[in-house]
């Protein structure tokens, strides 16, 4: 547990700062980042301003290879309607919050477009002074630039020479890579990305089961020690046992009034009759609560027979 003034895991030189990953996995990650940059929805979801851009991915012609000045590079970006994303990144520059502003990282800024070239130094000199623009050589593509923060969809501007060399570097589905040994492009698992179209197709719907046929109802568990209906389903003889108990208790109540038989006076006789009727009423009410049911249940038959006995 962290205490004030102490650090759980201090930053030491022997701390494990890096994790090694498979080379083939890194290559596949670069290919995935390049493929995601060609999807306008992913590029816009990442926050880039590409509403006025004519097409994605944006490929510039070979005429820009001779650009050496920054003002010419700005004109190129304005002509292809990509300068709005540059201005958005440049306007987001602000001072970092916290102590990081003391440690040589005072300012933070959003990422703008990434210009991928084929190794032309003049082109790199022209674009590198534009705030918000980053450059990368097609031979040395960096995954941290293609997907900053692990988020796919970076706005990439390719030169024509760099875009043509992608096939020779990473290969195609018909030919392997000429530079990366033992590497082939990963194929997409789903050829049709429209899931609704797949589900509603005749091939899928013809083999699906109709709804409601395999419906399985689960009955509610009832405690037979509390529920008389559940008790009678488990043990039908329980009705006879309970009837004998009720009759035995009723007989005892009658015996309690036996001393009134020889007593004289009408008041005592009326009192005896009233008590007997009250006992019968209580027995009926307790029996109806204990054995609820219909004519098909043994509780109803027992109730009828018990009423006959009480009538006697």
Structure overview:
This protein has helices spanning 23-36, 40-45, 70-79, 83-91, 121-127, 143-146, 160-164, 166-170, 195-199, 202-205, 228-234, 238-256, 266-290, 298-311; strands spanning 58-60, 94-95, 107-108, 114-117, 134-137, 156-159. It has 2 domains: 23-96 and 106-186, Ribosomal protein L4/L1 (Ribosomal Protein L4, Chain: A, 3-Layer(aba) Sandwich); 228-311. The longest helix has 25 residues, at 266-290. It is elongated and about 120 Å long. A 4-stranded parallel beta sheet has the order 1-6-4-5. 43% of the residues lie in helices and 6% in strands. The protein is built from 14 helices and 6 strands. The two termini are 82 Å apart.
Task: List the defining traits of the structure above.
single chain, 312 residues, alpha/beta, two-stranded antiparallel sheet, 14 helices, 6% strand
Question: What is shown here, in short?
Answer:
This protein is an alpha/beta fold and 312 residues long. The protein has helices at residues 23-36, 40-45, 70-79, 83-91, 121-127, 143-146, 160-164, 166-170, 195-199, 202-205, 228-234, 238-256, 266-290, 298-311, and strands at residues 58-60, 94-95, 107-108, 114-117, 134-137, 156-159. The longest helix has 25 residues, at 266-290.
**Coarse structural class:** alpha/beta
Stretches where pLDDT falls below 50 for ≥5 residues? 253-274, 292-296
Encode the helix/strand succession as letters: HHEHHEEEHEHEHHHHHHHH
CATH topology of the largest domain: Ribosomal Protein L4, Chain: A
Helix fraction?
40-55%
């Amino acid at each position: 547990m962290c205490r004030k003034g102490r650090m759980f895991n201090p930053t030491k030189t022997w701390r494990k700062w890096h994790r090694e990953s498979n080379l083939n996995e890194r290559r596949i990650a670069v290919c995935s980042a390049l493929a995601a940059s060609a999807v306008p929805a992913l590029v816009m979801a990442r926050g880039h301003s590409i509403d006025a851009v004519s097409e994605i991915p944006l490929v510039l012609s070979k005429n820009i290879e001779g650009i050496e000045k920054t003002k010419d590079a700005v004109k190129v970006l304005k002509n292809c309607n990509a300068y709005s994303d540059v201005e958005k990144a440049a306007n987001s520059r602000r001072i970092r919050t916290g102590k990081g502003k003391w440690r040589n990282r005072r300012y933070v800024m959003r990422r703008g477009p990434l210009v991928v070239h084929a190794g032309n130094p003049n082109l790199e000199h022209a674009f590198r002074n534009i705030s918000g623009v980053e450059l990368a050589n097609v031979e040395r593509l960096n995954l941290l630039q293609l997907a900053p923060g692990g988020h796919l969809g970076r706005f990439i501007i390719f030169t024509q020479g760099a875009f043509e060399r992608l096939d020779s570097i990473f290969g195609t589905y018909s030919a392997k890579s000429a530079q990366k040994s033992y590497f082939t492009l990963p194929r997409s698992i789903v050829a049709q990305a429209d899931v609704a179209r797949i589900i509603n197709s005749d091939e899928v719907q013809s083999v699906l089961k109709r709804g409601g046929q395999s419906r399985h109802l689960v009955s509610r568990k009832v405690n037979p020690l509390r529920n008389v209906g559940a008790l009678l389903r488990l043990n039908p003889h329980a009705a006879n046992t309970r009837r004998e108990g009720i009759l035995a208790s009723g007989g005892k109540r009658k015996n309690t009034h036996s001393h009134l038989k020889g007593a004289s006076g009408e008041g005592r006789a009326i009192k005896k009759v009233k008590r007997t009727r009250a006992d019968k009423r209580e027995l009926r009410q307790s029996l109806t609560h204990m054995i609820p049911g219909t004519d098909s249940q043994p509780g109803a038959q027992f109730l009828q027979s018990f009423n006959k006995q009480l009538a006697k």
